[in-house]
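Quick log. Single chain, no ligands specified.
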Amino acid sequence: MRLDKLLANTGFGSRKDVKLLIRKGHVTVNDEVVRSNQVHVDEHQDTIMVKNNRVHYRKHIYLMMHKPPNYLSATEDRYDQTVLDLLELEHAHFQPFPVGRLDKDTEGLLILTNDGVLAHHLTSPKKDVEKTYYAKVSGVVTEEDVKKLANGVTLDDGHFTKPALLRIIKSADQSEVELTITEGKYHQVKRMFGALGKKVVYLKRIQMGNIYLDEQLPLGAYRELTDDERTYYLSLIDS
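-> predicted structure:
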């Protein structure tokens, strides 16, 4: 990999910034000062230092975010803020993207990564990765609704959903439920309850696969996945 690309990819600034660092003699490769940005290095074997700071190369980054409302699950938008606007530069420079989408007004667990293979496995309908949501629903949710969702319902566009697991937490004029699905159609949870004649008034994703939203993360905060969380998600690629 070219030296300037490596340094830019590890958070030492833009290509222009790192070229200046190199020209000024602030970069060493295997204890030798390098002044050409076109030098190729082995990111796994060479010892690369910037102003006495060791460069640690990472190809991929894996983040868990507690998505707040009013942010889009997108990489850019002309009018609204996106979840990438919540990232610090040290993570943003990896150019991660949200895995799947949460609606603008939906909160909860959102995974961001620049690992396209993992993202595909987490969102592919063929992989049946479970996603669990906590919802407040206008209307009394009943055991009959549980059975209907378990058998699948027809959405407004004619799509017949896969079986879903509905757990009633509170059945009242405004019910509280948890719903587990393995699909990710547009506004799916809201449309599934719409097929039952009910309206979702609050929605929060709390689980994706075997990973739960970290309760210590406030709205808008994020952290890197733990080793165990990352290992679990990566294991899905080979499953």
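The chain has seven helices and 13 strands.
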